[in-house]
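Quick one, probably user error.
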């Protein structure tokens, strides 16, 4: 799909967070409490500083539709358990940065004399366990990684149910995934659905509607933002026994979950940002090589000057149901952002957020000013140099000041420039 103003489809599957949901949930709970196998959380109440690997793996089958009794065995398998969802979570006090690593990323320099598949990061877990996967992530990113959290799909089912299920939007054409060998029979018509854990896991793993692996990773980031908001609620805290109960039963980790007393006060202070590992295709293969220069741009701390930030083009997608978009646009223009467009969208419960492709520093500036999560990805519907802001229903409270501004606008309306405010348009689906 070509990025454009009229396309909201890539934003409408915000609940699709795949295996990474449970991984980041469990890892995040331990992280915000300062837990870790090789704890880097400073003593004496100082802010924690450490990095953890989170990844999702499949259930292993020994025979047709028959899971192995020992889910940790490495021989006699019908199919090896790859880890197609791999992320680094870097904690620095209340700042939590998440880096998605594409499954086809090559570990170290490409070696044409070796199997292409065995050089990809998604094969490292089966070949050498969680420690091998951790070392591969270190090689690719250059980051020291302190701990790991690896989860199975059956654990994800339990977490989804504990968090109340998934509200999802199925794209035009619907979704059909039938695989009798794996016991899969998922058929969903276009539109809104509420899914329990079993169907939720299947929906999260299917690619239709996402375009490719990069699109799926972008949606995972959006939904993990929503998950973090849920964990702040009474429902999220009530799910802790299920989440923590997975240790040893669907979860491999060297994190210590015994230091969760500080969980509740920490959650309210988290500042989330997400990025995708930049890569280049290795000629003659489907393997991907990390692009170190671009990695520093999306994963680093590049500052932005006021002049640079205010020169960025901004797209406001108003799905708040409270007409907050025009008020935000007015505020942004008053703050020195002349290029602001507003697009109306159907009301959405997805969390409000700032997103971009390559304008990372500018997106950081706006996210900080608005107090919203910042997402960087490869398939968000923005142009190069543009920053998007999605306003969901949570913006009615999170950005309550906009309602008063909107009311003032309604009393003395001024015609909007056609180059600044775009009318509501029908959704496009991939």
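Nope, works fine. Designed sequence:
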């Amino acid at each position: 799909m070509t990025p454009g103003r009229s396309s909201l489809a890539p934003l409408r599957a915000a609940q699709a967070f795949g295996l990474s949901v449970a991984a980041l949930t469990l890892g995040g709970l331990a992280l915000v409490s300062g837990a870790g196998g090789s704890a880097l959380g400073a003593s004496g109440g100082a802010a924690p500083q450490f990095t953890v690997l989170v990844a999702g793996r499949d259930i292993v089958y020994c025979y047709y539709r028959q899971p192995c009794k020992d889910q940790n065995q490495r021989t006699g398998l019908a199919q090896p358990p790859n880890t197609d969802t791999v992320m680094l979570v870097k904690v620095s006090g209340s700042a939590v940065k998440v880096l998605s690593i594409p499954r086809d990323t090559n570990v170290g320099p490409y070696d044409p004399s070796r199997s292409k598949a065995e050089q990809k990061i998604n094969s490292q877990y089966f070949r050498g366990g969680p420690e091998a996967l951790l070392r591969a992530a270190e090689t690719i990113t250059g980051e020291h990684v302190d701990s790991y959290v690896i989860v199975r799909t059956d654990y994800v089912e339990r977490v989804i149910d504990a968090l109340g299920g998934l509200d999802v939007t199925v794209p035009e054409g619907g979704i059909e995934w039938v695989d009798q060998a794996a016991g899969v029979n998922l058929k969903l018509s276009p539109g809104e659905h509420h899914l329990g854990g079993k169907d939720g896991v299947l929906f999260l793993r299917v690619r239709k509607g996402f375009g490719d692996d990069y699109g799926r990773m972008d949606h995972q980031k959006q939904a993990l933002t929503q998950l973090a908001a849920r964990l702040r609620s009474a429902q999220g805290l009530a799910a802790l026994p299920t989440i923590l109960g997975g240790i040893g039963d669907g979860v491999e980790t060297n994190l210590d979950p015994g230091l969760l007393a500080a969980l509740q006060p920490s959650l309210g202070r988290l500042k989330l940002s997400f990025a995708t590992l930049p890569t280049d295709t290795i000629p003659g293969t489907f393997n991907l090589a990390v692009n170190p220069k671009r990695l520093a741009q999306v994963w680093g701390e590049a500052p932005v000057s006021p002049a640079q930030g205010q020169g960025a083009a901004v797209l406001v997608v108003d799905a708040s149901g409270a007409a907050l978009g025009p008020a935000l646009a007015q505020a942004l223009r008053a703050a020195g952002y002349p290029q602001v467009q507003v697009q109306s969208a159907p009301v959405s419960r997805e969390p409000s957020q700032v997103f971009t492709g390559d304008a990372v520093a500018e997106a950081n500036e706006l996210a900080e000013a608005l107090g919203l999560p910042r997402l960087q990805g490869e398939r968000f519907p923005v142009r190069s140099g543009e920053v998007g802001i999605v306003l969901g229903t949570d913006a009615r409270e999170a950005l309550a000041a906009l309602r008063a501004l909107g009311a003032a606008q309604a009393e003395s309306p001024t015609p909007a420039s056609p180059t600044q405010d775009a009318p509501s348009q029908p959704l496009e689906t991939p």
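The chain has two domains: 9-299, 306-410.
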